[in-house]
Amino acid sequence: MPPTTPQASQVVPAELKPWMLNFFNARVLGPMVRRAWHAVRLAADTGDQPLHDLAAHKGPAIVAMNHHSWWDPMLGLWLSGKYLPGRPCYAPMERAQLAKFAILKKLGIFGVDPDDPATLPLMSAYLGQLWARDRSAVLWITPQGQFADPRVPIHLRPGAAAVAASLPTPPLVVSLTTEMVFWTDKKPELLIRAAAVAAPLSPSTPSWHRALTRAMQANADALRDLAITRDPGRFIVIGGGGAARTNIFYDAWLTLRGRGNRITPTPR
Questions:
Q1: Buried b vs exposed e over 52-88: b needs ≥16 C-beta within 10 Å?
Q2: Bridge pairing between strands 235-240 and 138-141
Q3: 43: alpha, beta or left, given left = phi > 0 and alpha = psi -120 to 50?
Q4: Over the Cα atoms of the chain, what is R_g?
Q5: pTM for the model
Q6: Phi/psi of residue 151, each to 5°?
Q7: Hey, how many other C-beta atoms are within 10 angstroms of the C-beta on 261?
Q8: Residue 100 to residue 76: CA distance in whole angstroms
Q9: Ramachandran bin of 108, using left for φ above 0, alpha for ψ from -120 to 50, beta for the remaining angles
Q10: Residue 40's closest CA among 185, 221, 163, 166?
Q11: What is the DSSP secondary-structure string of 65-109?
């Protein structure tokens, strides 16, 4: 076997095992989501149509997520299991971090050196090979490249744009914005908004970068405005939900007495 060169080692390939991903989604990630949030809510103005479009699309697809918490890649896995059960999904992760959690390679995570300029063409080439083998593969990526508050202006690194520009035909791209807020439950609400990203007329890395930036900023602004309303009626519940909870025994006592445990803020 020829020695591994430094350049060839900059992308650590994923070792996706569909059965392991299905097990992880059902037995590990599903319960984690239920424990973490009171409800997972999808913005009703765009609904889940962009995610159904991903499932129906026949060619390469990219989901560009904002990056504001540890949860982002886990949420991508959860949503892919919920909406894209038949499509292999891949996502990049900092190589040094992936070395600590090597099992994630079995879930479709591959490793990159985000601060090495040589990684960008290598990542595009690696993904091109994946799509050459299976055109139904979906790339989940956080183009910001670092944790950022969901309400600060969007600034993207060039990776997602370069990947989109490297494809012979424009991929289907969806912007996915998430935000965590506290409303009336002791647990937070996870808010999500999905929106299609229009492909530029002249595909190139700069034009895709502008298109992604505009779409992700518009999506973040729209979700911010929805979150500020604190109105559950503007969202579709896709996980959890139900009455707000305080304590399992006290909640049961209130229910037995016919009072219920729902917190209903008085409008003023």
A1: eebbebeebbbbbbbbbeebbbbbbbbbbbbbbeebb
A2: unpaired
A3: beta
A4: 20
A5: 0.88
A6: -110, 5
A7: 16
A8: 20
A9: left
A10: 185
A11: E---STHHHHHHHHHHHHH-TTS-EEEEEEHHHHHHTGGGGGGTE
Burial class (CB in 10 A: 0-12, 13-18, 19+), 142: buried
The pairing of beta strand 39-43 with beta strand 189-197 = parallel
Q: What's the pLDDT at 253?
A: 58
Map tokens 């690194």 to a residue: 157
| CATH 3.30.2000.30 assigned to 18-243 | no
202-251 residue pLDDT tens: 999 999 999 999 999 999 999 999 999 999 999 999 998 766 665 555 56
Q: How far apart are the first and last CA of the chain?
A: 73
Domain ranges of the chain: 18-243
Half-sphere exposure of 216 (CA within 13 A, CB side): 30
SS3 state at 181: strand
Q: Which range is most confident: 67-76, 111-120, 215-224? A: 215-224
Residue 60 near residue 167 (C-beta atoms within 8 A): yes
Q: Is 178 helix (H, G, I), strand (E, B) or coil?
A: strand
Q: Which of 81, 96, 85, 49 is nearest to 195 (CA)?
A: 49
Average pLDDT score, the chain: 89
Of the candidates 153, 141, 74, which has an alpha carbon nearest to the alpha carbon of residue 107?
Answer: 74
